[in-house]
Amino acid sequence: MKKILSALLLAAVVPAALAQVEVGDAWIRATVPSAKSSGVFMRLKSKQDAQLVAVRAEVAGVAEIHQMQMEGQLMKMHAVPSLDLPAGRMVDLASGGYHVMLMDLKRQLKQGETVPVTLVFRKKGKQAETVTVDVPVKPLTYTPPKGQ
């Protein structure tokens, strides 16, 4: 009986211990029917130094971590291999900075639906951990409140 109770307690504690990265305020921009890409935005906060190393979404042929930055007088966007998540600090994935790009969309993303997005995190010297988030699709004209 003690072994069963210990196993149940361990099973309850392990998922909580793995939840090292908090994901908040996630949203995806809706698309017009012919669009082939959209952005995913959110806030991430890790309890330990970690990195966002990959993203997956079944609605897209390709999902990448991207960064927008000024190069001279032009704002340019490019894929990055990972995104550092310093321990205890909020990292915003927002329009005009780091964000997730969903490309080669398989269908239109409509306001009001949710899309599962899997985030892959790695902590120093540790195996990768995945978190799947059901992300709401917001209108094309949506602008998040300040501070999000």
List the helices and strands and how they pair.
Layout: H1 2-18, E1 21-29, E2 37-46, E3 50-56, E4 60-71, E5 74-79, E6 83-85, E7 90-93, E8 98-105, E9 114-123, E10 129-138
Parallel strand pairs: 1-10
Antiparallel strand pairs: 1-2, 2-7, 2-8, 3-6, 3-9, 4-5, 4-8, 9-10
Write a concise keyword list for the protein shown above:
about 150 residues; Immunoglobulin-like; 10-stranded mixed β-sheet; mainly beta
Provide an overview of this structure.
The chain contains 1 helix and 10 strands; from the N terminus they run H-E-E-E-E-E-E-E-E-E-E. 11% of the residues lie in helices and 53% in strands. The chain starts with a helix and ends in a 10-residue tail after the last strand. Residues 1-18 have low confidence and may be disordered. It has a single domain, classed as Immunoglobulin-like (Sandwich), CATH 2.60.40.1890. Keywords: Signal. It comes from Duganella vulcania.
